[in-house]
Amino acid sequence: xxxxxxxGGGLAQPGGSLRLSCAASGFTFSSYAxxxxxxxxxxGLEWVSGIYSDGSDTYYADSVKGRFTISRDGxxxxxQMNSLKPEDTAVYYCNAKGSWGQGTQVTVSS
Length: 110
Description:
mainly beta
């Protein structure tokens, strides 16, 4: 049974940084691509970033390119978020094998 648990969200000031983590279990972590998505208040789910199973390639939405970095290590998926903007405010979810975690709230505000 796939289990994904996100953490690391919180309140950040514009221009600040946060690092999200997604602890994975219940599947062979190294065999699957993974991704991050987010849902802002009143909006639909937006894909943010993806990474190959072996970490050899990464992809980013234009809205976060150059500011966010996805990575994976051991049994954890990460999203380093720098130069945060108010429009990055959302609940962030990790995804693997069609399953989603419960999400972690990120709020960017002064």
